[in-house]
Amino acid sequence: MRARDVMSRPVISVDTRGTVRDAVTALTEHGFATVPVVDEDGRVIGIFSESDGLRADPHGRTPVTSAMTTPVEVVAPDTDVASIAERMLAGHLRALPVVEEGLLIGMVARRDLLRVLVREDDVITGGVRGLLDQYAGTRRQWSVEVHEGAVTISGDFADDAEKSLVAALARTVAGVTTVGLTASPARTGGED
What we know:
This protein is α/β, with parallel strands linked by helices. The chain is built from 7 helices and 8 strands; from the N terminus they run αβαββααββααββαβ. Strand 7 (150-155), helix 7 and strand 8 (178-183) form a beta-alpha-beta unit.
């Protein structure tokens, strides 16, 4: 997996005409830990972090260029995520700008890398279970298995209409490739 696969975009940045106040506003309004500072050509020339904001005076018209961190580390879109994680850990970095031909095209934050650790099948399973729980309420009656995007839902279905509804709900989850339904074997009477 590469930077292009996990990076966040569009990128919120501050240009060199911005102030510390502008950068702090960008951080707080968007919930970022860092924001890149770009020149008039869109090239990354620095990074402004929460730490930079705490050290600077956000009330005045202090230029962001006087408070940003330089030089800034960047990665290319084809940089392997393992390499990005190593660089972040070694440099105590919260995020890295992704640059192609000198221009800012995305950001890779720690949370982007953490998402990679959660397998996509697990995310799909959670999404399908959540929808089925909303539909069925407290009577959770189906089990969900996912393998490479293929969803199998097993359990008791009231009728064909419910089967169709359950399959349709599952298909709305991003990453689902196919949906299969397996009805539980008919129960025999006599047991309580």
